[in-house]
Design a protein that fits this description.
Elements: H1 14-19, E1 23-30, H2 35-47, E2 50-56, H3 66-73, H4 76-79, E3 82-85, H5 88-97, E4 101-105, E5 112-113, E6 125-129, H6 138-143, E7 146-149, H7 161-176
């Protein structure tokens, strides 16, 4: 087997990305501290054509932390639409009103497990991912329509937020890829 060169991958450019169909999926990062995690979520969101990212609270934005975010995003901060809000609760309430299915990715009583979660075609989703230590704020969990949990079977009780984003975005992509 021969590794493919970047020029052989047939990737679209930034302008083509911006005008392409996207997954009906918005990622909300609430109080994510690590600029490298933010950059990684941008890169994964680009790879699977996520609609947009909303950065909330203390989460850094590309314009304020370009070097660190760019180091892991590798330019995806230019292709993926993003917005900033200081208040995640307001963002989730607004998306609820617009008909999005709002989903906190968190370990809670009665959560849906990722391996048995079914995405409804025709619906738009917003996934909330929280702080690396505290997770999704309880006030945000309270107003989300669903909670989604990644089953884990080792000794640790959590995954890195960018790894979590990758797993959940991949699952949504698998179920919605025919829309692209």
């Amino acid at each position: 087997m021969r590794k493919l060169a970047v020029t052989e991958l047939g990737r679209i450019d930034v302008e083509q990305f911006k005008s392409s169909r996207k997954l009906p999926l918005t990622i909300i990062l609430d109080d994510v501290r690590s600029l490298y995690n933010v950059g990684s979520v941008f890169r994964t969101s680009d790879a699977f054509r996520v609609e947009r990212i909303i950065l909330c609270g203390i989460t850094a934005t590309p314009q304020n932390s370009l070097v660190e975010i760019h180091k892991t995003a590798l330019g995806a901060e230019e292709s993926v639409e993003w917005l900033y809000s200081d208040d995640c609760v307001s963002v989730v309430k607004e998306l609820n009103e617009k008909g999005y299915v709002t989903v906190a990715v968190e370990q809670v009583e009665g959560s849906d497990k990722l391996d048995s979660f079914s995405v409804e075609p025709g619906r738009s989703y917003a996934l909330v991912l929280g702080n690396e230590v505290k997770g999704v704020n309880q006030k945000v969990v309270d107003i989300c329509q669903k909670c989604l949990e990644i089953p884990q079977y080792g000794t640790k009780h959590s995954l890195n937020v960018s790894v979590t984003a990758g797993l959940v975005i991949w699952e949504f992509y698998k179920q919605l890829k025919d829309l692209l």
